[in-house]
From TrEMBL:
Residues 32-209 form the VWFA domain. SMART domains: VWA. Residues 218-239 are annotated as: Disordered. It comes from Pocillopora damicornis. CDD domains: vWFA_subfamily_ECM (cd01450). The lineage of its organism: Eukaryota, Metazoa, Cnidaria, Anthozoa, Hexacorallia. Transmembrane segments: none annotated. This is VWFA domain-containing protein. It comes from the Eukaryota.
Length: 239
């Protein structure tokens, strides 16, 4: 996809909203979270917003060696694993790496299918990236993209492979992402969300993860989480 800063660009985020179904405080949710970040030319004007959004999410997933692990794939014309789960076990390191991701190459296309293939084959590989084949570890994919796969390749094929392995895919789009609704609807297997402007992404982290779920919820920053129907209370919010 070519960059056109005169048009409202869209992001699409495929998001595992595990936050909505977090376990109770004494039985916390643990996950392997993969950021799949679009670095095609069309996203370049909003790159800072993308990085802030990803970092904001990372701060809420309880990253540690015994807790959640995070990895990231960046894609444009080609795909590259920026860091794997073996490197993504410290919150400060993960946040710093996300905020320091190199910007997109102008004019590069959107090869989403390639990123999904790399995530399935390489990132989610227990032998190379400390991915945990454990039913108690939730499988999370978080993709930020403008929603338009550059033809003729199709992203639904690798997306289906991830789904068959037990991954839940949510989507959030911004701006023109609505014009790609059918593609997003085909890729996701959970809810689909939209925001009006890409610049809103950093402010929408809590909105996306905030609704109390069936088993408790994370609280807002510095607050106690809302009681769940099964959990006694949600985990304490970040300070």
């Amino acid at each position: 996809m070519h960059t056109d800063v005169s048009l409202q660009k869209g992001y699409v985020l495929f998001f595992h909203l595990f936050f909505i179904q977090t376990e109770r405080l004494d039985d916390p949710c643990i996950l392997d979270l993969a950021f799949i970040i679009d670095a095609s030319g069309s996203i370049e004007p909003y790159w800072e917003d993308v990085r802030k959004f990803a970092a904001g999410v990372a701060k809420l997933v309880n990253i540690s060696s015994d807790g959640s692990h995070v990895g990231a794939v960046k894609f444009g014309e080609t795909s590259k694993i920026e860091f794997g789960f073996n490197e993504g076990q410290n919150e400060n390191t993960v946040v710093r790496n996300l905020l320091n991701l190199d910007p997109p190459v102008p004019g590069s296309r959107t090869m989403l299918h390639s990123a999904l293939e790399k995530a399935n084959d390489d990132l989610f590989n227990p032998q190379t990236n400390s991915f945990r084949e454990d039913p108690n570890v939730r499988k999370v994919v978080l993709i930020i993209t403008d929603g338009a796969q550059t033809p003729p390749e199709k992203p639904d094929i690798p997306a289906d492979k991830l789904k068959k392995r037990g991954f839940e895919i949510y989507a959030i789009g911004a701006g023109d992402a609505k014009s790609h609704y059918r593609e997003l609807d085909m890729l996701r297997n959970k809810d689909l969300f939209f925001v009006k402007r890409p610049s809103e992404l950093p402010t929408k982290v809590v909105d996306v993860i905030g609704p109390p779920g069936e088993r408790g919820a994370f609280g807002l920053r510095g607050d106690v989480g809302a009681p769940g129907r099964r959990g006694r209370t949600g985990p304490a919010g970040l300070k």
